[in-house]
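Methods, example record. To illustrate the input and output format used throughout this study, we show the complete record for Transmembrane protein 236. The sequence lines were provided to the predictor; the line carrying C-alpha coordinates was produced by it.
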Amino acid sequence: MPSGKTVKLILYEGLQFAALIVPIFVVMERFASLICDVRGRDLTAYWLVVSMSMAYVTSVALLVWVPLKYLILRRRPTALAYLILCTLPCFAILIASSKVKGLRLDHFTELPVSLVLVSLICVDIIERIRPCRLIGSCNTAYLYSSSSRRRSYSGPLGFLWRRDGRSEVFVDSFLFWLDTVEMVRVAGEPSVFYSAWVFPIYILAFMSTLRLAITPNSPLMSSAGFALQDLPFLILRVSLIVWFGYVTPLLYPLKNVLVSLTFIYFTFLSKLRICKRQSMF
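The corresponding predicted structure is encoded as:
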Protein backbone atom coordinates (compact mmCIF):
# COMPACT_ATOMS: atom_id res chain seq x y z
CA MET A 1 0.00 0.00 0.00
CA PRO A 2 1.50 3.40 -0.98
CA SER A 3 2.39 5.83 1.79
CA GLY A 4 0.59 9.07 2.44
CA LYS A 5 3.39 11.10 0.88
CA THR A 6 3.19 9.04 -2.29
CA VAL A 7 -0.58 9.45 -2.51
CA LYS A 8 -0.26 13.20 -1.95
CA LEU A 9 2.46 13.46 -4.60
CA ILE A 10 0.39 11.54 -7.15
CA LEU A 11 -2.68 13.66 -6.37
CA TYR A 12 -0.84 16.97 -6.68
CA GLU A 13 0.99 16.01 -9.84
CA GLY A 14 -2.18 14.63 -11.42
CA LEU A 15 -4.09 17.84 -10.68
CA GLN A 16 -1.29 20.02 -12.02
CA PHE A 17 -0.98 17.95 -15.18
CA ALA A 18 -4.75 18.19 -15.69
CA ALA A 19 -4.52 21.97 -15.17
CA LEU A 20 -1.84 22.00 -17.87
CA ILE A 21 -3.61 20.04 -20.61
CA VAL A 22 -7.35 20.66 -20.07
CA PRO A 23 -7.32 24.45 -20.75
CA ILE A 24 -5.24 23.93 -23.89
CA PHE A 25 -7.60 21.27 -25.23
CA VAL A 26 -10.73 23.35 -24.47
CA VAL A 27 -9.34 26.59 -25.93
CA MET A 28 -8.00 24.84 -29.04
CA GLU A 29 -11.25 22.92 -29.55
CA ARG A 30 -13.22 26.15 -29.48
CA PHE A 31 -10.75 27.74 -31.88
CA ALA A 32 -11.08 24.70 -34.16
CA SER A 33 -14.88 25.05 -34.11
CA LEU A 34 -14.58 28.71 -35.10
CA ILE A 35 -12.26 27.88 -37.98
CA CYS A 36 -14.63 25.11 -39.05
CA ASP A 37 -17.62 27.49 -39.11
CA VAL A 38 -15.73 30.19 -41.00
CA ARG A 39 -14.68 27.64 -43.65
CA GLY A 40 -18.22 26.45 -44.18
CA ARG A 41 -18.22 23.48 -41.80
CA ASP A 42 -14.93 22.15 -43.11
CA LEU A 43 -14.14 19.21 -40.83
CA THR A 44 -10.63 18.95 -42.24
CA ALA A 45 -9.72 22.32 -40.74
CA TYR A 46 -11.33 21.30 -37.44
CA TRP A 47 -9.37 18.08 -37.07
CA LEU A 48 -6.17 19.78 -38.21
CA VAL A 49 -6.36 22.25 -35.32
CA VAL A 50 -7.33 19.50 -32.87
CA SER A 51 -4.44 17.32 -34.00
CA MET A 52 -2.07 20.28 -33.58
CA SER A 53 -3.27 20.75 -30.00
CA MET A 54 -2.74 17.06 -29.26
CA ALA A 55 0.75 17.21 -30.77
CA TYR A 56 1.57 20.30 -28.72
CA VAL A 57 0.38 18.77 -25.45
CA THR A 58 2.23 15.52 -26.14
CA SER A 59 5.47 17.31 -26.99
CA VAL A 60 5.24 19.63 -23.99
CA ALA A 61 4.48 16.76 -21.61
CA LEU A 62 7.24 14.46 -22.84
CA LEU A 63 9.97 17.01 -23.57
CA VAL A 64 9.41 19.69 -20.91
CA TRP A 65 6.89 18.94 -18.16
CA VAL A 66 7.86 15.39 -17.16
CA PRO A 67 11.65 16.02 -17.33
CA LEU A 68 11.19 19.19 -15.28
CA LYS A 69 9.24 17.34 -12.63
CA TYR A 70 11.79 14.56 -12.57
CA LEU A 71 14.85 16.80 -12.31
CA ILE A 72 13.65 19.49 -9.94
CA LEU A 73 10.40 19.16 -8.02
CA ARG A 74 10.43 22.63 -6.57
CA ARG A 75 7.93 25.41 -6.28
CA ARG A 76 8.75 28.27 -8.60
CA PRO A 77 10.31 26.59 -11.66
CA THR A 78 7.14 24.52 -12.01
CA ALA A 79 4.93 27.61 -11.77
CA LEU A 80 7.01 29.52 -14.31
CA ALA A 81 6.96 26.55 -16.70
CA TYR A 82 3.17 26.38 -16.36
CA LEU A 83 2.81 30.06 -17.26
CA ILE A 84 4.95 29.65 -20.38
CA LEU A 85 3.55 26.30 -21.54
CA CYS A 86 -0.16 26.78 -20.78
CA THR A 87 -1.28 30.30 -19.84
CA LEU A 88 0.69 32.07 -22.58
CA PRO A 89 -0.48 29.89 -25.52
CA CYS A 90 -4.07 29.92 -24.22
CA PHE A 91 -4.10 33.72 -24.09
CA ALA A 92 -2.55 33.83 -27.56
CA ILE A 93 -5.27 31.55 -28.98
CA LEU A 94 -7.99 33.63 -27.30
CA ILE A 95 -6.59 36.77 -28.95
CA ALA A 96 -6.44 34.98 -32.30
CA SER A 97 -10.06 33.88 -31.83
CA SER A 98 -11.18 37.49 -31.56
CA LYS A 99 -9.64 38.27 -34.94
CA VAL A 100 -11.04 35.35 -36.95
CA LYS A 101 -13.05 36.64 -39.87
CA GLY A 102 -16.75 36.05 -39.31
CA LEU A 103 -16.43 35.57 -35.55
CA ARG A 104 -19.17 38.11 -34.90
CA LEU A 105 -21.66 35.36 -35.72
CA ASP A 106 -20.34 33.42 -32.73
CA HIS A 107 -21.54 34.16 -29.21
CA PHE A 108 -18.45 34.56 -27.08
CA THR A 109 -18.53 32.11 -24.20
CA GLU A 110 -16.78 32.59 -20.90
CA LEU A 111 -15.86 28.92 -20.43
CA PRO A 112 -12.38 28.96 -22.03
CA VAL A 113 -11.25 32.07 -20.14
CA SER A 114 -12.67 30.89 -16.83
CA LEU A 115 -11.08 27.47 -17.28
CA VAL A 116 -7.65 28.98 -17.91
CA LEU A 117 -7.89 31.17 -14.82
CA VAL A 118 -9.30 28.42 -12.59
CA SER A 119 -6.46 26.13 -13.69
CA LEU A 120 -3.95 28.89 -12.89
CA ILE A 121 -5.45 29.32 -9.43
CA CYS A 122 -5.44 25.54 -8.95
CA VAL A 123 -1.71 25.38 -9.70
CA ASP A 124 -1.07 28.26 -7.30
CA ILE A 125 -3.05 26.59 -4.51
CA ILE A 126 -1.25 23.28 -4.99
CA GLU A 127 2.16 24.94 -4.84
CA ARG A 128 1.23 26.85 -1.69
CA ILE A 129 -0.26 23.89 0.12
CA ARG A 130 2.35 21.34 -0.98
CA PRO A 131 4.40 21.51 2.29
CA CYS A 132 1.31 20.60 4.35
CA ARG A 133 -0.31 17.30 5.15
CA LEU A 134 -3.77 16.60 3.73
CA ILE A 135 -5.06 15.01 6.93
CA GLY A 136 -4.56 15.91 10.56
CA SER A 137 -3.47 19.29 11.84
CA CYS A 138 -1.47 21.74 9.77
CA ASN A 139 2.16 20.81 10.31
CA THR A 140 3.94 23.85 8.91
CA ALA A 141 4.29 27.43 10.09
CA TYR A 142 5.02 28.51 6.52
CA LEU A 143 1.36 29.33 5.91
CA TYR A 144 1.11 31.71 8.86
CA SER A 145 2.78 34.94 9.73
CA SER A 146 4.46 35.27 13.12
CA SER A 147 1.52 37.27 14.47
CA SER A 148 -1.14 34.72 13.58
CA ARG A 149 0.17 31.43 14.99
CA ARG A 150 -1.87 31.55 18.23
CA ARG A 151 -4.97 29.03 18.28
CA SER A 152 -5.37 28.77 22.00
CA TYR A 153 -8.75 29.95 23.35
CA SER A 154 -10.79 27.68 25.61
CA GLY A 155 -14.39 27.52 26.63
CA PRO A 156 -17.61 26.25 25.04
CA LEU A 157 -17.15 28.48 21.97
CA GLY A 158 -13.47 27.78 21.62
CA PHE A 159 -14.03 26.03 18.28
CA LEU A 160 -14.94 29.40 16.77
CA TRP A 161 -11.33 30.55 17.28
CA ARG A 162 -9.84 27.64 15.40
CA ARG A 163 -8.16 28.27 12.08
CA ASP A 164 -6.24 26.20 9.60
CA GLY A 165 -3.78 27.61 7.11
CA ARG A 166 -4.71 25.03 4.48
CA SER A 167 -8.26 26.33 4.14
CA GLU A 168 -7.06 29.94 4.22
CA VAL A 169 -4.76 29.23 1.28
CA PHE A 170 -7.80 28.76 -0.95
CA VAL A 171 -9.29 32.10 0.05
CA ASP A 172 -5.97 33.94 -0.22
CA SER A 173 -5.26 32.50 -3.65
CA PHE A 174 -8.63 33.51 -5.10
CA LEU A 175 -8.31 37.02 -3.63
CA PHE A 176 -4.75 37.24 -4.96
CA TRP A 177 -5.97 36.61 -8.54
CA LEU A 178 -9.26 38.50 -8.34
CA ASP A 179 -7.90 41.65 -9.99
CA THR A 180 -6.48 39.66 -12.91
CA VAL A 181 -9.76 37.76 -13.26
CA GLU A 182 -11.69 41.02 -13.53
CA MET A 183 -9.26 42.39 -16.10
CA VAL A 184 -9.66 39.30 -18.29
CA ARG A 185 -13.44 39.49 -17.84
CA VAL A 186 -13.41 42.96 -19.38
CA ALA A 187 -11.84 41.44 -22.51
CA GLY A 188 -14.97 39.31 -22.85
CA GLU A 189 -17.18 42.34 -23.39
CA PRO A 190 -18.18 42.24 -27.10
CA SER A 191 -17.25 45.88 -27.72
CA VAL A 192 -13.80 45.26 -26.24
CA PHE A 193 -13.29 41.72 -27.54
CA TYR A 194 -13.69 42.71 -31.19
CA SER A 195 -11.44 45.77 -30.88
CA ALA A 196 -7.68 46.23 -30.74
CA TRP A 197 -7.92 46.76 -26.97
CA VAL A 198 -8.02 43.00 -26.47
CA PHE A 199 -4.26 42.90 -27.16
CA PRO A 200 -3.07 45.11 -24.25
CA ILE A 201 -5.63 43.52 -21.92
CA TYR A 202 -4.38 39.98 -22.43
CA ILE A 203 -0.73 41.07 -22.55
CA LEU A 204 -0.95 42.93 -19.23
CA ALA A 205 -3.04 40.13 -17.72
CA PHE A 206 -0.32 37.65 -18.61
CA MET A 207 2.35 39.96 -17.21
CA SER A 208 0.47 40.02 -13.92
CA THR A 209 0.46 36.22 -13.79
CA LEU A 210 4.26 36.25 -13.70
CA ARG A 211 3.90 36.97 -9.99
CA LEU A 212 3.19 33.26 -9.67
CA ALA A 213 6.92 32.66 -10.16
CA ILE A 214 7.65 34.53 -6.91
CA THR A 215 7.20 32.89 -3.52
CA PRO A 216 4.24 34.40 -1.59
CA ASN A 217 6.40 35.55 1.34
CA SER A 218 9.16 37.00 -0.83
CA PRO A 219 10.04 40.71 -0.37
CA LEU A 220 9.77 41.04 -4.15
CA MET A 221 6.03 40.35 -4.12
CA SER A 222 5.08 43.92 -3.18
CA SER A 223 7.23 45.49 -5.92
CA ALA A 224 6.05 42.92 -8.46
CA GLY A 225 2.42 43.60 -7.60
CA PHE A 226 2.94 47.32 -8.15
CA ALA A 227 4.98 47.02 -11.36
CA LEU A 228 3.20 44.07 -12.99
CA GLN A 229 -0.37 44.63 -11.90
CA ASP A 230 -1.61 47.73 -10.10
CA LEU A 231 0.17 50.48 -12.05
CA PRO A 232 -0.36 49.05 -15.59
CA PHE A 233 -3.91 47.93 -14.70
CA LEU A 234 -4.71 51.45 -13.48
CA ILE A 235 -3.53 53.05 -16.71
CA LEU A 236 -5.35 50.49 -18.84
CA ARG A 237 -8.60 50.68 -16.87
CA VAL A 238 -8.70 54.48 -17.04
CA SER A 239 -8.12 54.25 -20.80
CA LEU A 240 -10.89 51.67 -21.18
CA ILE A 241 -13.34 53.78 -19.20
CA VAL A 242 -12.55 56.83 -21.31
CA TRP A 243 -12.93 54.86 -24.55
CA PHE A 244 -15.81 52.47 -23.80
CA GLY A 245 -17.47 53.84 -20.70
CA TYR A 246 -17.87 51.91 -17.48
CA VAL A 247 -17.00 48.43 -18.74
CA THR A 248 -15.35 47.73 -15.38
CA PRO A 249 -16.56 48.67 -11.88
CA LEU A 250 -14.90 51.72 -10.36
CA LEU A 251 -13.89 49.56 -7.39
CA TYR A 252 -10.96 48.07 -9.33
CA PRO A 253 -9.31 51.30 -10.58
CA LEU A 254 -9.78 52.74 -7.10
CA LYS A 255 -8.07 49.69 -5.67
CA ASN A 256 -5.20 50.14 -8.14
CA VAL A 257 -4.91 53.82 -7.18
CA LEU A 258 -4.81 53.14 -3.45
CA VAL A 259 -2.34 50.27 -3.73
CA SER A 260 -0.06 52.28 -6.03
CA LEU A 261 -0.13 55.39 -3.84
CA THR A 262 0.47 53.49 -0.61
CA PHE A 263 3.33 51.54 -2.20
CA ILE A 264 5.02 54.73 -3.42
CA TYR A 265 4.50 56.52 -0.11
CA PHE A 266 5.59 53.80 2.31
CA THR A 267 8.41 52.53 0.09
CA PHE A 268 9.93 55.83 -1.03
CA LEU A 269 8.38 59.01 0.38
CA SER A 270 8.24 57.86 4.00
CA LYS A 271 12.01 57.29 3.89
CA LEU A 272 12.73 60.94 3.07
CA ARG A 273 14.35 63.10 5.75
CA ILE A 274 11.37 65.41 6.01
CA CYS A 275 9.11 62.46 6.85
CA LYS A 276 11.42 61.26 9.64
CA ARG A 277 10.94 64.35 11.77
CA GLN A 278 9.60 63.49 15.21
CA SER A 279 7.11 66.34 15.07
CA MET A 280 5.19 64.65 12.31
CA PHE A 281 2.57 62.00 13.11
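Annotations derived from this record:
Residues 145-150 have pLDDT under 50 and may be disordered.
Residues 4-134+164-208 form one domain.
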